[in-house]
Amino acid sequence: MPNSTAPDVLGHALQAYLNGQKKAALTVHSNVAEDEPLPASYFFRSLWEMPQLERTALEECRGRVLDLGAGAGCHALELQSRGFVVKAVDVSPGAAQVMEERGVRQVACHDLFHLPTTDENYDTILMLMNGIGLVGTLEGLEKFLAHAHKLLAPGGQILATSSDISYLYEDEEGALVLNLNGPYYGEVEYTMSYGDEAGPTFQWLFADATILQDYAEAAGYEVDFLDEDEQGQYLVRMTLRA
């Protein structure tokens, strides 16, 4: 469940933006790259402000949708406008409150591994903005793909984006320099800060396409890669085998 003692930096930034502070921005710190600003406005983007991968994913949604890591609800709101029944989930209590204020009809605050299973399952699980990252590690990916069996209706699908970040480990000649005895190179540690607040460190997974396919097929899914952008981010569909 969400850590109620940790500062909800994402929620505070989103609430500030919703309340008129249009320049509100998070700072993202990681163990693989320089600090980067993340404007809160990005979480409020309209359909035509979304990258093509996200627009494609929305076109591929079907049936009842579970939107994981929903942020300020931009995907859930777009799907609602198209007549979909959507449940939007985020670990941030502030984000959940923002989604409710913006008109998302079904909102819940959970982490990925405590999603309640119900009698009414989902036809689509949506995980955008490098959403596979929510699982944290390869171990977490295996755990989530198993849990998703209980969440999906027969023949249900997971639509997710991820990236191969091996380019961060290339030397000047373009050869990969990896510690083969260490953790998988796509397991990254992040912290986000907003103003004087720093959130807890969390793990985020960037899964290369080959390893994602291996894990998904081992967990009982058919895998289709639907699209890729110029930055190497890809959209994948994982369909539960009958």
Structure, described:
This protein is an alpha/beta fold and 242 residues long. The protein has a single domain (49-185, 206-240), classed as Rossmann fold (3-Layer(aba) Sandwich). It contains 6 helices and 12 strands. It has helices at residues 9-18, 52-60, 74-81, 93-102, 138-151, 209-218, and strands spanning 25-30, 36-39, 65-68, 86-89, 106-108, 122-127, 152-163, 187-194, 197-198, 202-205, 221-228, 233-240. The strands form 2 sheets. Strands 5-4-3-6-7-12-11 form a 7-stranded mixed beta sheet, sandwiched between helices. α1 packs parallel to α4 (93-102). It is globular, with a radius of gyration of 17 Å. The two termini are 31 Å apart.
Annotation keywords:
alpha/beta; single chain; seven-stranded mixed beta sheet; 6 helices; five-stranded antiparallel beta sheet; 25% helix; Rossmann fold; 242 residues; globular
List the helices and strands and how they pair.
Layout: H1 9-18, E1 25-30, E2 36-39, H2 52-60, E3 65-68, H3 74-81, E4 86-89, H4 93-102, E5 106-108, E6 122-127, H5 138-151, E7 152-163, E8 187-194, E9 197-198, E10 202-205, H6 209-218, E11 221-228, E12 233-240
Parallel strand pairs: 3-4, 3-6, 4-5, 6-7
Antiparallel strand pairs: 1-2, 1-8, 7-12, 8-9, 8-10, 11-12
Keywords: Methyltransferase, S-adenosyl-L-methionine, Transferase
Protein name: Class I SAM-dependent methyltransferase
InterPro entries: Methyltransf_25, SAM-dependent_MTases_sf
